[in-house]
Design brief:
mainly alpha; flat; 78% helix; disordered C terminus; 2 domains; 314 residues; single chain; MetI-like fold
């Protein structure tokens, strides 16, 4: 297992290098001049050229990329064009907010999605199953920005119960977390239900019932662990996407997270911040995928055996 983890960590290096090359190429091909964006439309050509030389934008593409990667290797992601602060400082100042937001969203999604999916599968074709199906369809279909605006309109504007913007305390967290957590829970409901339906029809479930075990014991100790593999996959992917910054939701609720920072950086042609943010998102996805694979090994004994986690016989 340790060798597998080390191998996966080493494989992150070429992945991140590939991501860095792609985003660096895309930003180099993006229309617009960062120097002109910084100085304004009234700046002279001499001033723009001097600033481009200062930022290294006049160097050939490969030279700029090699310099950038040399800095990344030493933990230097460059200097922000707009604030003149290190990119690492800007990203680390925003990322904790995004991580907290992602955790809250996933707590809501899992607390609603997994239990509802289990009950829907065990009570197939009942009103609970029909309700969960409608809930999942609505959750997947309704746009996130529309749900956020409706929540603000009802609970902030009309009722005045919750603040509409910001992320400064628990009362500010509720509406954004629900806005993202409910649609995420819809996908988890569908995956949990379909996975549980497949498992509870297996022969060993019938055998457990024939032995007189209770439905609760069968569901929680026999069916659910074997049904969790695809559910963990969906949760991991959704959590990774949330760690990448919920751009629309952060814009609607004015949350000072990574997604809002990335939008501001793209609009300002702030290449170092965009490139550093994308690398941070790619690294988060790699870590989440590794954690999901490790969780697989502790859920499914067959995967444990493949990783060599099972105890050796004396």
């Amino acid at each position: 297992m340790y060798k597998y983890v080390i191998r996966r960590i080493l494989l992150m290096i070429p992945v991140l290098i590939g991501v860095s090359f792609i985003i660096f190429t895309l930003m180099s091909m993006t229309p617009g001049d960062p120097a002109r964006q910084i100085l304004g439309e009234g700046a002279t050509e001499e001033a723009v050229t001097a600033l481009r030389d200062e930022l290294g934008l006049n160097d050939p593409f490969l030279i700029r990329y090699v310099k950038y990667m040399a800095g990344v290797a030493h933990g230097d992601f460059g200097i922000s064009y707009t604030t003149k602060e290190p990119v690492t400082t800007e990203l680390l100042s925003r990322y904790p907010t995004t991580v907290l937001f992602a955790v809250l969203c996933m707590v809501i999604a899992c607390v609603i999605g997994i239990p509802l999916g289990i009950v829907s599968a065990t009570k197939q074709y009942t009103w609970i199953d029909n309700f969960s199906t409608v809930f999942a369809m609505l959750g997947i279909s309704i746009p996130t920005f529309w749900m956020g605006l409706m929540l603000v309109l009802v609970f902030s504007v009309q009722l005045g119960w919750l603040p509409a913007t910001g992320f400064y305390g628990p009362s500010y967290w509720i509406l954004p977390a629900i806005t993202v957590g409910l649609p995420s829970s819809a996908g988890i409901v569908r995956m949990t239900r379909s996975s549980m339906l497949e498992v509870i029809r297996q022969d060993y479930i019938r055998t457990a019932r024939a032995k007189g075990q209770t439905e609760w014991n069968i569901t929680m100790h026999h069916a659910l662990p074997n049904a969790l593999i695809p559910v963990v996959t969906v949760v991991g992917i959704t959590f990774g996407q949330s760690l990448g910054g919920q751009i629309v939701t952060e814009q609607v609720f004015a949350i000072p997270g990574l997604g809002k920072l990335m939008v501001e950086a793209i609009n300002a042609r702030n290449y170092p911040v965009v490139e550093g943010g994308v690398l941070l998102i790619a690294f988060a996805f790699c870590v989440i995928n590794l954690l999901v694979d490790i969780i697989y090994a502790y859920i499914d004994p067959r995967i444990k055996a493949q990783y060599g986690v099972t105890k050796k016989k004396k």
